[in-house]
Amino acid sequence: MRFLGVDLGESRTGLALSDPVGITCRPLDILHEKDPDAVLAAVLETAECEGADVIVVGLPRPLSGGTNRQLKSVEAFVEKLAARSPRLVTTWDERFTSTLARRGKSRREHVDSVAACHMLQGYLDRRSNALPVEQ
Prior knowledge:
The chain has 135 residues and is an alpha/beta fold. The protein has 4 helices and 5 strands. The chain starts with a strand and ends in a 7-residue tail after the last helix. The model has no long low-confidence stretch (mean pLDDT 87).
């Protein structure tokens, strides 16, 4: 089962892809697009081309809990994506993934896809440990 990770941003969206059995992942691409409909179309096309069975979108949950504008925007994107995709669409907490990507040896232009990979790997690790995956 292959997974596509999506780290949605206002001007760039990082993508990551799991291996065919869903154990590890790698940074895939960065979409340099601000239009949410264009990002949606690109994510759907990437999922189709890469043979992803599940799309995992990172949720930018505030550290203090509650909600904010960015979280609401991502939730609206996820709702549209789920309505248009024949694949399962789910979410996973993405807190600190950009920080992790910046601290690594990632070049600046790859930070978004590396952050998507950190988020997706957290999802895959939780899944492989046979623990219930919480949203």
